[in-house]
Amino acid sequence: MSSMSDDKKPTLGRRPLGLKTSVEAGEVKQTFSHGRTNKVVVEVKRRKLMGRPGEAAAAPAPEVAKPAAPAPAAPVARPTPPPPPPVSPTASRETRQELQARLLREAEEARLAALEAANRREHEERQRAQEEERRRAEENRAQEAAKSGEPEAAPVAEAPAAAEPAAAAAPAPVAATAAEAPAAAAAPSAEPAAEAATETKAAAPVTPAPRRFTPVAPVKRPEPAAKKPQPPARDRKGGDERRGGKLTVTRALNEDEGARARSLAALKRAREKERRAHFAGQSQPREKQVRDVVVPEAITVQDLANRMAEKAADLVKALFKMGMMVTINQTIDQDTAELLVTEFGHNIQRVSESDVDIDTAADVDAEDTLQPRPPVVTIMGHVDHGKTSLLDALRGTDVVCGEAGGITQHIGAYQIKTKGGDHITFLDTPGHEAFTEMRMRGANVTDIVILVVAGDDGLMPQTIEAINHTKAAGVPMIVAITKADKPEFNPQKIRERLLEHEVIVEAMSGDVQDVEVSAKTGAGLDDLIEKILLQAELLELKANPDRAAEATVIEAKLDKGKGPLATVLVNRGTLKVGDILVVGTQSGRVRAMLDDKGRQVKVAPPSLPVEVLGIGGVPMAGDTLTVVENEARAREVAAYRQEQATAKRTATAPTSLENMFSALAAKAAVIEYPLVIRADVQGSVEAIVNALNKISTDEIKVRILQSGVGAITESDVNLAQASGAPIVGFNVRPNAKARELVERNKVRMKYFDVIYQLTDDIRSEMAGELGPERIETVVGRAEVKEVFPAGKKDKAAGLLVLEGFIRKGINARLTRQDVIVSKTVIASLRRFKDDVPEVRAGLECGVVLQDTNDIKPGDMLEVFEVEERARTL
């Protein structure tokens, strides 16, 4: 801001206050950020003070003396006026009041004068700071010109000479400021004295005389220089430090500059850089490392770059040159990945997705690592032949009492300890026809099969099926003929019947052991155990306990408190708490293990059945449990198996257009009976689904919308409501929220605990869905001889009955040239003008057909009866 613009503005330092005008106007320039400015017109109004009647003559006295009176030397403290003359004791009361008022006014004027002087001095200091800033800038420019050798020194040197006339013509404060600058540069010690003299000279001509009125406080102008923060003090000893506040990389790393100390990390980085540069100058360029890159069937560009230890951008460039516009997250096939690996000079190793899965067949234990293990014995036979009772007698417990309907519907796994200290693992399988896969699974994981045959009943269908499963599994068999305590017991008949199925017992000079037992009296149990141990000794059962465990899932379920549970039989290795495992499409970690008596165990050696907690979901019965090295491997295998299962479930066989339309037509003709099934264990779900699929016919079939293990949930209820399907619960009940939804939406629920009751109920419901069966029986035929009107609309037909009889109200079909014209009912039957109930063959009659007038001579009328019967599946 220049001094010219300062002169135009109405400041206290330039124009002393007076009584000439009551309003002064001026422009104030406002400066904002980013170089924006604004001019504002300011008006200063002064308040006029009305004096009292006694003061009118004394008020103008200071103004008359103002031009000639010199200002006092001190700018702040104005001269104290002479004390008033003493007031006589006889002065009037008005004189004392006037004296008091005058003293108060003079004190107020002195205070305002001091305030004015302070404001003026502040303004002068601000101007002096601006002049100092301008002078320093000129000195810096002169030093830059002197360093660079440019001819700019002369104009800068002439600046003090040119400033002298300006200083002489300028007002006193500016001249004093200009005179102070060289004095400060020449003699710093004389600065306080010079500043005091300057202040005295500057304040002398502008200090106003005392006034008899109270002025209004002046309006302060916004000063741009005052708003901006003052720059930090610079070192005047030399050097260009105009940008001293900025920190650059060069300055931060320059050790010669003491303004900023280097950190320890910066020193370490610098020394490491020097060491690398030193060794890089001595060593030869490093050869490129050739890597063996494992490439699956599909891989992303980024993953391939990581395996090759190359930049992903280089791979993208190479693919662009091949004509493939890809990104680093895009998947490429194995052939394209091979081209990239070869181009970058690496070796490729192809792997298929099937290599991700665990192949347990190739993992064979060495002979010297095998140790003896207990035998696994499966009890199989027909339903209600005493399998579970025999196992109870061996274990000394009573499992039968806790079973619904007195039949086994789950696979039970138990281990007993004999009197000699040997261990035997028993598996109890269901005997009902619906549990075929359970029996097959039990035969596949076992070492010895005990075929239970009731001595009073003989061989039954499930007994024969168990024999076939045993032969298919290739395991030895021991025949246990039970119920020896009954009078109808006939073991010889059982032995003879077994010959029909190529099972020759030792009593018939064969190699199959047999024993007569009674679970009720305990007879023959010791012989049975002895024969089991003898057979196990012949088999030489061994396993390696010192390796990662491998087990087979016998049964799986979802427990409300424990979560997914799997009953597994350890085949080899030792299963420990904390092992990471993969079982089917699920993965997890062994949190806890329970034996057949519910006790927690830490380790499970071979042939021990345990219940495992900690699996991510309910596995399928029959899946193999494998312990892996880490969780990443477990998740990888589980994800691969899940993809394979999904692809298998959603895969459809390729078909032609004709086959597709025929399949749609067949589907439209078949009635579907939807169901939502929930059971307690995985084996029960499997058995129920198989049993329901068997009762389906060509007219109606079961459609399983959803089946699962565990309690009935909200999603099951919502699905059943949307599709109008009933929910079948086998040994399970809905949870609280699902129960509320069932009551609100009126969804049908069916609860069962015996499987054959479930199948019978669903069979009868499916039959009812089809409706009763209609059976038509033709009872008579007649020929239309004549047609004549009967009433306003109807037509009557004259008939000749050819076969059987015609009865009123019976169903009839009118055919013309063997094509059915209409299907109707005989509404009226007459012979000669009389209504008759029936007309026999060989006679003529007249009929009126209901809702039919399309009758012509020569048409044939066929009458028939309809019988409805209850449909069965």
TrEMBL record:
Domain called Tr-type G: residue spans: 372-542
Molecular function per GO: GTP binding; GTPase activity; translation initiation factor activity
PROSITE patterns xrefs: G_TR_2 (PS51722)
Binding site for GTP: 381-388, 428-432
Extent of Low complexity compositional bias: 51-68, 151-210
Chief localization: cytoplasm
Compositionally biased tracts (Basic and acidic residues): 1-10, 93-111, 118-150, 233-244
GO cellular component: cytosol
Keywords from the UniProt entry: Cytoplasm, GTP-binding, Initiation factor, Nucleotide-binding, Protein biosynthesis
CDD domains reported for this sequence: IF2_eIF5B, IF2_mtIF2_II, mtIF2_IVc
Region (Disordered): 1-250
Domain of life: Bacteria
Keyword Nucleotide-binding appears in the UniProt entry: yes
Residue ranges with Pro residues bias: 69-88
InterPro entries for the chain: EF-G-like_DII, IF2_assoc_dom_bac, IF2_II, IF2_N, P-loop_NTPase, Small_GTP-bd, T_Tr_GTP-bd_dom, TF_IF2_bacterial-like
Residues in coiled coil: none
Subcellular location: Cytoplasm
PANTHER family listed in its UniProt record: TR-TYPE G DOMAIN-CONTAINING PROTEIN, TRANSLATION INITIATION FACTOR IF-2-RELATED
Role this protein plays: One of the essential components for the initiation of protein synthesis. Protects formylmethionyl-tRNA from spontaneous hydrolysis and promotes its binding to the 30S ribosomal subunits. Also involved in the hydrolysis of GTP during the formation of the 70S ribosomal complex.
Membership in a protein family: Belongs to the TRAFAC class translation factor GTPase superfamily. Classic translation factor GTPase family. IF-2 subfamily.
Name of the protein described by the UniProt record: Translation initiation factor IF-2
Organism: Novosphingobium olei
